[in-house]
Amino acid sequence: MRKDVLVQADVLEFLARLESKGAALVYLDPPWPTASLPAYGLDKRLSADEQEATNKFQAYLDWLGSVLLQSKRVCSARGTVVLHVPPPLGSYARVMANRLFGADSVSEIIVAKPGVASRQFVSERHESLLFCRLSLETIYHEVYRPLTSSEMQERFPHKDARGRFGVRDMTGPFREGLSYAVNGVLPPEGRSWRVTEAKFNALNSENRIYFSPQTQRPFMKAYESEFPGVPVGTTWYDLPRGLFGEATGYIGQQSLALLERVIAMTTSEGDLVVDPFVGAGSSPVAAISLNRHWIGSDNATEAIKISRERLAQVLPSLPDVLQVSDFGDVVDVNQHNGQLSNGLVEPERGYVFTLNEPVSVEETRHYEFKEVKGDNPVRAIREAADEYAVAYLNSEGGRIFWGIRDSGRLAIGVRLDSTGKDDVAKAIDGQLANIQPSISPSYWRIHFHPVLDQGGLPLADLFVVELVVPYPDTPTTLYATGSGSVFVKSDSGKKKLNHVELMGEVRRRSAL
Question: pLDDT at position 336, please?
Answer without folding.
Answer: 40
